[in-house]
Design goal:
α6 links the parallel β6 and β7. A 7-stranded mixed sheet has the order 5-4-17-16-18-19-20, sandwiched between helices. The protein is built from 20 helices and 29 strands. It has a domain of 126 residues: ANL, C-terminal domain (GMP Synthetase, Chain A, domain 3). The protein starts with 9 loop residues before the first helix and ends with a helix. The protein is α/β, with parallel strands linked by helices. 32% of the residues lie in helices and 22% in strands. It is globular. The structure holds 5'-O-[(S)-ethoxy(hydroxy)phosphoryl]adenosine.
Length: 642
C-alpha cells in the first residue's frame, strides 16, 4: 500500500512553537546529549519553585527521582501563578453539563474555589500525606477537588464514575483513604448515574474513611449518614478563601491511578509532583502547540490518565482554556461533539479512535451540520488509529486543514512520549511518528537486541523521563517485575511496534494482542485496520485462536454500518478482502457479525474476553472496566447456537 505523507503547512509551521525538522532535531539532540541541562533549564523556566532542587534526576534503577529536594506545588502552578499575569480573568475551565447547563470559571474564580475547598479538607483534619478518593461526575468541582488536594499535599485517587461499588471499595482499601469526595450523581445519556449509593455500598468494609463530602449535582434523594456524610455546599459556605499552597518536595506523591494489569488485581500507578507537571506542561506546547488564544478540548473522562494530564494538570499549568463536558457524545444526538466545537469555537480537539469510529459510522451529515472552521489541530489517543478513521477525521472534521497528533503514551508514562510536533514533523496516518525530546524509545527482541528497520518487536524506553511512574502503590516488587525485569534495567511498555525507514514508530498494540499464524507475526490491529477499510465495516476486533496446523487462526468480530447484508456472502467477501489487503496467510478463519464489541469504559476493546470466548467460551477475571456486558453475553450465546 502506498503511504500518504502530510507535511505541516508553511502557515502552521510559521506560527508553531517548534518549526520544521531542524527545530525538532535541535531539541531532540540537546535532550539526548545533556538531559540534566535540558530538563533543568525547562523546569526553571516553565514552573514555579519555592526552593530549587539538588539534582535534576537521580537514577537508582528502577527507581528515579526528579528535582529531588526542590520545593513546589502543583496547585500553585496550575492556579496561583497565573493571577499576577493577564490570564487572571481568562477562562480556565469552560464547562458544559449534559443537560446543557454551562459554567465558565476564570483563573481567579478557580483560585477562590480551590482555596475554599482546600480549607474544607484542612478543617476536617486532612493534611500532607493523607489519601483522598474522588468519585465524581465530570463537573468543575472534580478538578477543584484535585487541585485542593494537591494544594495541601493530600494524595488523590480518582475512581471513574462508571466503576462499581466493589471496584471503589478495593481502591479505598488499597489506599487506606481517609476521605471520599463524591456527588449525589451525574448525567449520562439523560439518566442519572447514582454515585452516592455506590459509595454507601462500598463503605461497609472501609473503616479508614472518616468523612464523605457530597456535592449536590442532580438534586435526587440520597441518604446522608450523620457524622460521616457532609454536603459540599454546607462545608464550603463558611470556608475562608485564604489557603496558601504548601511547599512540597518535588517527589511528593500527587496521585495514584488504578489501571488493569494482566492479573485480576488492578495496579496503583503512582505519580509524583515536579517531574510529572513539567512533562505534562511541556507536551501542551510541543504536541498541542498551545497558544494563548486557543480553546482546547480533551474529551476524555478525568477518571482516566488522559483527563488527569490533559484536562486538568497540563492545560491549567500552561494557562489554557480547558473545555470540559459532562456527558455522552451521542446525547441527545450524534452531533453533540460538533455542536460544542461550534458553540465555543474550539481550536484544539483531542479524542480517541473509538469515538472517531463510532461517530464516523453515523455518517458525515452530523459534523456537516456545524461550522467547524475554528479547529486548527486534532489529536488522538488510547489505541492505534487505523488509517481509514484517520483519513475521515482529517477530511470530514479537520477539512484537510488540521494536523492530527497521534499521541502514544500510557497511564504509567504520565504524559505523551511519542507524537508529532505538528509544526515540524510530517504526518503518516496511523503512526505516532517520532519520540519527544528526552524520550529514548527503541524496538527490541526478547533479549533486548534492537530490531532492524521494519521488523516488529517490543517497544521499550531506555532512559527515565520526568513523568514516569515511580512505583506501584504498596507493591514495589510488582513494579520491578512488571516493568523492569523482562529486559533488565529497561522500561518494558508491553506494546509491540516497528520503526520504518524514516525512524517513525508504528504501534501495533499490546504484546499479548500479537498473533502468530503459520510462523508469521501478525498484529490484530493490522487485520482490524484492513477490515475497517471495507465499506460495510464499522468496527472490528480480532483475536488469535489456537489452531492445529497454523498455530493460531485469525478470528474476527465485526460490527457493520447501516444497510442490508447477506452474512454468508459478506463473510466470504471479508475473508477475501483481508487476504487481499495483507496477504493470504492473514485470511481470517472466521468472521462473526455482532451488534457491539466488549469495551473497557475508556473505550478499549477487551480482546482478552474475546479470546476467552473463542478458546473456551468462558469469561473469568476482572471485568469491572467493561462498558457493555450485554455484548459479551450476546457473543457467547451466538457461539452456543453454532
Ligand atoms: C495504547 C492511555 C497506539 C497502547 C494514554 C498503550 C496507543 C496503552 C496509543 C495505554 C496510540 C495509547 N497509538 N496505541 N496513540 N495511545 N495506546 O494506560 O497499547 O489507558 O500501552 O493510557 O494504550 O493505555 P492507557
Amino acid at each position: 500500500m502506498s503511504q500518504s505523507i502530510y507535511p505541516p503547512s508553511s502557515e502552521f509551521s510559521a506560527k508553531a512553537h517548534v518549526s520544521g525538522m531542524e527545530g525538532y532535531n535541535a531539541l531532540y539532540e540537546k535532550a539526548k546529549d545533556d538531559p540534566e541541562a535540558f530538563w533543568g533549564e525547562l523546569a526553571e523556566k516553565e514552573l514555579f519553585w519555592f526552593e530549587k532542587w539538588n539534582h535534576v534526576f537521580e537514577w537508582n534503577p528502577p527507581f528515579v527521582k526528579w528535582f529531588a529536594g526542590g520545593k513546589t506545588n502543583v496547585s500553585y502552578n496550575c492556579v496561583d501563578r497565573h493571577l499576577t499575569t493577564p490570564r487572571k480573568n481568562k477562562v480556565a475551565i469552560l464547562w458544559e453539563g449534559e443537560p446543557g447547563d454551562q459554567r465558565m470559571i476564570t483563573y481567579q474564580e478557580l483560585h477562590r474555589l480551590v482555596s475554599r475547598f482546600a480549607n474544607v479538607l484542612k478543617a476536617r483534619g486532612f493534611k500532607e500525606g493523607d489519601r483522598a478518593i474522588v468519585y465524581m461526575p465530570m463537573v468543575p468541582e472534580l478538578p477543584v477537588a484535585l487541585l485542593a488536594c494537591a494544594r495541601l499535599g493530600i494524595t488523590h485517587s480518582v475512581v471513574f464514575g462508571g466503576f462499581s461499588a466493589e471496584a471503589l471499595k478495593a481502591r479505598i482499601q488499597d489506599l487506606d483513604a481517609g476521605v471520599v469526595i463524591t456527588a449525589d450523581g451525574g448525567w449520562r445519556r439523560g439518566k442519572e448515574v447514582r454515585l452516592k449509593d455506590a459509595v454507601d455500598e462500598s463503605l461497609a468494609g472501609c473503616p479508614s474513611v472518616k468523612d464523605v463530602i457530597v456535592l449536590k449535582r442532580t438534586g435526587s434523594n440520597v441518604t446522608m449518614k450523620e457524622g460521616r456524610d457532609h454536603w459540599w455546599h454546607d462545608l464550603d459556605a463558611t470556608a475562608s478563601e485564604d489557603c496558601p499552597a504548601v511547599p512540597l518536595d518535588s517527589e511528593h506523591p500527587l496521585y495514584v491511578l488504578y489501571t488493569s494489569g494482566t492479573t485480576g488485581k488492578p495496579k496503583g500507578i503512582l505519580h509524583t509532583t515536579g517531574g510529572y507537571l513539567l512533562q505534562a506542561t511541556m507536551t501542551m506546547k510541543w504536541v498541542f502547540d498551545l497558544k494563548e488564544e486557543d480553546t482546547y478540548w480533551c474529551t476524555a473522562d478525568i477518571g482516566w490518565v488522559t483527563g488527569h494530564s490533559y484536562i486538568v494538570y497540563g492545560p491549567l499549568s500552561a494557562g489554557a482554556t480547558s473545555v470540559m463536558y459532562e456527558g455522552a457524545p451521542d446525547f441527545p444526538a450524534f452531533d453533540r461533539f460538533w455542536r460544542i466545537v461550534e458553540k465555543y469555537r474550539v481550536t484544539t480537539f483531542y479524542t480517541s479512535p473509538t469515538a472517531i469510529r463510532a461517530l464516523l459510522r453515523q455518517g458525515d451529515q452530523w459534523p456537516n451540520m456545524h461550522d467547524l472552521s475554528s479547529l486548527r489541530l486534532l489529536g488522538s489517543v488510547g489505541e492505534p488509529i487505523n488509517p481509514a478513521a484517520w483519513e475521515w477525521y482529517h477530511r470530514v472534521i479537520g477539512k484537510g486543514r488540521c494536523p492530527i497528533v497521534d499521541t502514544w503514551w500510557q497511564t504509567e508514562t504520565g504524559a505523551i512520549m511519542i507524537a508529532p510536533m505538528p509544526g515540524a514533523v510530517p504526518l503518516k496516518p496511523g503512526s505516532g511518528t517520532l519520540p519527544l525530546p528526552g524520550i529514548l524509545p527503541d524496538i527490541v527482541d526478547f533479549n533486548g537486541i534492537p530490531m532492524e528497520e521494519g521488523r516488529e518487536g517490543f517497544l521499550i524506553v531506555r532512559r527515565p523521563w520526568p513523568s514516569m511512574l515511580r512505583t506501584l502503590w504498596g507493591d514495589p516488587e510488582r513494579y520491578k517485575e512488571n516493568y523492569w525485569s523482562r529486559i533488565p534495567g529497561i522500561y518494558f511498555t508491553g506494546d509491540a511496534a516497528r520503526r520504518d525507514a524514516d525512524g517513525y514508530y508504528w504501534i501495533l498494540g499490546r504484546v499479548d494482542d500479537v498473533m502468530n499464524v503459520s510462523g508469521h507475526r501478525l498484529s490484530t490491529m493490522e487485520v482490524e485496520s484492513a477490515l475497517v477499510r471495507h465499506p460495510a465495516v464499522a468496527e472490528a476486533a480480532v483475536v488469535g485462536r489456537p489452531h492445529e496446523i497454523t498455530g493460531q487462526a485469525v478470528c474476527c468480530f465485526v460490527t457493520l454500518k447501516k444497510g442490508d447484508y447477506d452474512p454468508a456472502v459478506l463473510g466470504k467477501e471479508l475473508r477475501q478482502w483481508v487476504a487481499h489487503e495483507i496477504g493470504a496467510f492473514a485470511r481470517p478463519e472466521e468472521i462473526r457479525f455482532t451488534e457491539g464489541l466488549p469495551k473497557t469504559r475508556s473505550g478499549k476493546i477487551m480482546r482478552r474476553l474475546l479470546r476467552e470466548i473463542v478458546t473456551s467460551n468462558a469469561v473469568t477475571g476482572d471485568v469491572t472496566t467493561l462498558e457493555d456486558m450485554g455484548s459479551i453475553t450476546r457473543l457467547a450465546a451466538q457461539h452456543d447456537e453454532e
